[in-house]
Amino acid sequence: MYKKIVVGTDGSASAAVAVDHAIGLAQATGAAVHIVNAYKATTTLASMSPEFVAPDLAGMEKDALRVCEEAAQTARAAGLEAITHTAEGDPADALVKIAEYEDADLIVVGNRGMIGARRFLTGSVPNRVAHHCPCHLLVVHTS
Predict the structure, then answer these.
(1) This prediction's pTM
(2) Phi, psi (deg, nearest 5) at residue 21
(3) Measured between alpha carbons, how far is 63 from 48 in angstroms, rounded to an integer?
(4) Are 84 and 75 in contact (CB under 8 A)?
């Protein structure tokens, strides 16, 4: 049924619920799990000042790799093939691009950000993924 499952994580407890669902589905179907963490280099108006220090992208990528590897260890402990991906940029874009590149069958995301006023201001990752998803999408109740 599924051969490649993409799941996003930011290392939070709610993301761990989505990762656990992806792992369970991968065990049931024999799929490989592709674990994704995206990080954003944020800039503000302070970046206009001469004292501005550029974001530490190397440090952000190192943290993203650590988050992915922690989730991958859980998948590997369950006997699965786990591949990690990090990307600088928007998490929803990263999930969609990696799913396209890997020709994934399923993306698994948590529902965090889909309820409450914040979804109107910043949008939610699951909502944006749903609008551009190249494959099946599972939104897991994580709250």
Answers:
(1) 0.86
(2) -65, -40
(3) 26
(4) no
Backbone angles phi, psi at 138, to 5 degrees: -120, 120
Print the domain residue range for 22. Answer: 4-140
Phi and psi (nearest 5°) for 41?
A: -85, 105
Query: How far, in whole angstroms, is CA 77 from its chain's centroid?
Result: 20
| For the chain, percent of residues with pLDDT exceeding 70 | 83
Closest C-alpha among 121, 128, 122, 140 to residue 97: 128
57 vs 104, more confident = 104
- Per the structure, how many domains does the chain have? 1
Q: Which residues pair with 4 in a beta bridge?
A: 32
pLDDT tens profile 27-81? 999 999 999 999 987 655 555 555 666 678 888 999 999 999 999 999 999 999 9
* CATH number of the domain residue 94 falls in: 3.40.50.620
Residue 76, H or E segment:
helix 57-77
Q: Which helix (H) or strand (E) holds 66?
A: helix 57-77
